[in-house]
Write a sequence for this structure.
């Protein structure tokens, strides 16, 4: 299957690449992850009231189990990316896939059915691992490789890393740490429908922004390696 081509054609890192590929592009997924890291447990306890299962141990044990699964999928995903060979690189194709997986799995985290306790526990465990051990792992692994695969120019790499860090700080350090507790959380309270509406917006927002990261990045190192292999 032929993948959509990058909009970056220059052999050197461009301003568009910095602003759209490394500053704005990752913002959607990073914001979603930052919000989940801070408030998902609040949703489980205050909105869904999932503290009773396993005498309160469920919310303490299942994230630990999920972390083990996540560690395994990270290793597997690293090997998969390393063996990927396409004209658009080896990490960017997975970035494209994650753009569609993040919204779906992000919404599933919050659309827990109003059913019996067992159904809710199963839904939470499955949706949690679909997001963290599958969708976000694919994004995080491929996103993390974009700077080292972008160029051999150390100065340019440093600039791209700075843009990435700015995005992370803006999402987690400003929006999630300041704006959300002051404005957003008091407005939605423990209303399940408002939580679903808000998180659906954040999840869907990750789609166009992650696509922006895909289209405005370029794996120059991978292209050089492929060209060298063809020459040999």
């Amino acid at each position: 299957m032929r993948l959509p081509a990058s909009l970056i054609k220059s052999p050197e890192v461009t301003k568009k690449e910095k602003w759209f590929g490394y500053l704005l592009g990752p913002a959607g997924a990073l914001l979603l992850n930052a919000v989940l890291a801070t408030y998902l447990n609040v949703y489980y306890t205050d909105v869904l009231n999932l503290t009773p299962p396993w005498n309160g141990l469920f919310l303490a044990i299942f994230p630990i189990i999920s972390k083990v699964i996540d560690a395994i999928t990270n290793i597997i995903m690293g090997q998969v990316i390393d063996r990927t060979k396409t004209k658009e690189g080896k990490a960017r194709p997975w970035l494209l896939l994650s753009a569609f997986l993040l919204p779906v799995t992000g919404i599933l985290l919050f659309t827990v059915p109003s059913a019996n306790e067992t159904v809710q526990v199963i839904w939470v465990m499955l949706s949690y691992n679909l997001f963290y051990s599958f969708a976000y792992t694919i994004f995080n692994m491929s996103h993390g490789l974009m700077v080292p695969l972008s160029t051999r120019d150390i100065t340019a790499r440093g600039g791209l890393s700075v843009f990435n860090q700015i995005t992370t700080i803006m999402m987690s350090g400003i929006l999630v740490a300041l704006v959300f507790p002051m404005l957003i959380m008091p407005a939605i309270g423990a209303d399940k429908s408002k939580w679903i509406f808000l998180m659906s917006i954040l999840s869907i927002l990750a789609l166009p922004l992650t696509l922006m990261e895909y289209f405005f990045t370029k794996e120059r190192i991978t292209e050089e390696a492929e060209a060298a292999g063809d020459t040999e």
User: Anything to note?
Assistant: The CA atoms of residues 109 and 127 lie 5 Å apart. The longest helix spans residues 154-188. The mean pLDDT is 92. The helical segments are 15-24, 27-47, 58-83, 92-108, 117-150, 154-188, 192-215, 220-231.
